[in-house]
Amino acid sequence: MAKTKSSLQPLAIGIDIGGTGTKFGIVDRNGNLLFSSEISSRNHSEIEGFINELFEALLPMIEDAGGSGRIRGIGVGAPNGNYYSGTIEYAPNLIWKGIIPLAKLIENKFQLPTTLTNDANAAAIGEMMYGAAKGMKDFIMITLGTGVGSGIVANGKLVYGHDGFAGELGHTIIIPNGRLHEGTGKRGPLEVYASATGVKLNAIEVLNNNNEPSLLRNVPLEELDSKKVYEAAIHGDKLAREVFDYTGTILGIALANFVMFSSPEAVILFGGLTKAGELILKPTREHMEANLIQVFQNKIKILVSHLRESDAAILGASALVWEMKS
Amino acid sequence: MAKTKSSLQPLAIGIDIGGTGTKFGIVDRNGNLLFSSEISSRNHSEIEGFINELFEALLPMIEDAGGSGRIRGIGVGAPNGNYYSGTIEYAPNLIWKGIIPLAKLIENKFQLPTTLTNDANAAAIGEMMYGAAKGMKDFIMITLGTGVGSGIVANGKLVYGHDGFAGELGHTIIIPNGRLHEGTGKRGPLEVYASATGVKLNAIEVLNNNNEPSLLRNVPLEELDSKKVYEAAIHGDKLAREVFDYTGTILGIALANFVMFSSPEAVILFGGLTKAGELILKPTREHMEANLIQVFQNKIKILVSHLRESDAAILGASALVWEMKS
To answer: How far apart (Å, rounded) are the C-alpha atoms in residues B12 and B20?
Structure first.
């Protein structure tokens, strides 16, 4: 019997390189993840060794998917990935230092056209094609993880800026002369308040500034994270709620500023912190609205990504392939 | 003799509606202002009366330019002008209140296709076609006048946002819980520090916080403006220089945040405050650089518009015509 038409549709490879692990898979145009797996990002101090391992892991998947003739290309999301140059540049969380011509190295090894962008941009494209931003032409994606990443879509296209580095919203200054960001040496950027590390620091600050009892006082410092704060908050712990209120206050001001920049239809939030649900969303929404001028009030949606966290990164990276010029 | 080809090139009408006066003219594709004039924006409490006066003033110009057959269309810049709807909405500085379908009214009267946008967006298009941003695909225009306006170009296109209201950078919060903006009720937006009013308030603050002598102490409060501060500063007045340093500190933080959003090739500054030259540009540049993460440092230009202030608004508005779809 002849193969059905859908089985011959082109496929894309998505690769998401993180500081610890690299996830990859083969995705069809509808966002179905047909095959996927993961390797460590830390096994090879030389990038070539890493790419060889990636190739060995993907080869059987490519065969199972019908051979490399069906693969339209490879999309890669990586921290500090530059869309224009195809390089990763001085990524603090990766073991390969300096400027790495990642897209070219992968393209040469796989003999498939390869596009690279940073991980948050890849997530934004994933949301636009398969997620909460489906059909939107103007939105902002904010990833609230270890750090705060962002991808901005305007007029239906990712905003890369003149050099490919646009969308570093986690580094915008929200509190001038505020808390120190140890990685950058800057004071008061969003990332030191609204990331995983930020929430921990917010919790320490709230606990130090109050004498009231709190469940959080029993948590050893090294275990204090947004999950612990969440658990305390849903048990009615007053200070735990204050931690989310404070985090939401800062995030809300930041979102108001972003909205007044590009007037997105929605802000899509993604990552660990969003698991706190309304505990973080309510103060964020309130402080965003309070800092918006009238023309923007009560019309910008704050949405939480509904893509599975483990799949979203691969989907987003693979979606880059459908954006390729040809 | 047959007319030369260039004399038959299409022309555009540019109209810039300000709170006090409305400037208009006829412009060719190279940005030559062939005819121009001005009427008051305050003579008619009904918008129809205003449009009739505008029509009567433009009619002889259109005839002199070769008749309306040569006019490709009309571009209008106005405060709170919305590109998508062609309306001006609740513009605080205009005498016509509520939502005015300005583009449609002008189109009906002149029988020419008409496009409207806000004044800062029009200025950005003018800079891109004829000014300091010529050839750039990614830049940010900041107008430092009575207020602070902005137009953002990314991927070669104006960022309008989902509703046409993008680019309200003057209202982004730079100092949370900072100085009150009387027009919006918000605290700490850029506009209360880096506009004409802002500089005056900065001067009052610097004078009140210091006991040192200053030439500015002899200036009556109602005459205190950025020109007076400039004059004192070039005479070596220490506190006058502090006023510009403070203004530049705030503006520099704001520009750093804008750069980390869209990574523009340049920020173009326009308006009265730029007349202070390096007195304002130097601290602005320093504080922008100090708040940028490494990947953006020492590569974003801060440029001052070199278009004549009186022409720029008309040029920018007329340039909208060449962007029209049909």
So the answer is: 23
Q: pLDDT tens across A79-102, in order?
A: 889 999 999 988 877 999 889 999
pTM: 0.92
Alpha carbon B7 to chain centroid distance?
Answer: 31
Which residues are registered as beta bridge partners of A35?
A: A26
Q: Which chain B residue lies closest to A261 (C-alpha atoms)?
A: B167
Coarse DSSP helix, strand, coil percentages of chain A, rounded to the nearest 5 percent: 45, 20, 35
Q: Is it the case that residue B311 has pLDDT exceeding 90?
A: no
pLDDT digits (tens, 9 = 90+) for A146-198: 889 999 999 999 999 999 999 999 999 999 999 999 989 999 999 999 999 99
Nearest CA in chain A to B181: A293
CA distances from B150 to A29, B64, B133 (A): 39, 34, 14
Residue B275 backbone dihedrals phi, psi, to 5 degrees: -65, -20
* Domains of chain B, start order: 6-125+310-322 (3.30.420.40), 136-306 (3.30.420.40)
Pair type for strands B71-77 and B114-117: parallel
Chain A partners within 8 Å of B294 (Cβ): 90, 184
Query: Which stretches within A162-294 are classed as H helix?
Result: 191-194, 196-208, 226-234, 238-262, 278-291
pLDDT of amino acid B68: 93
Q: Which residue has tokens 């069906």?
A: A70
- Of all helices (H) and strands (E), which one includes residue B59? helix B47-64
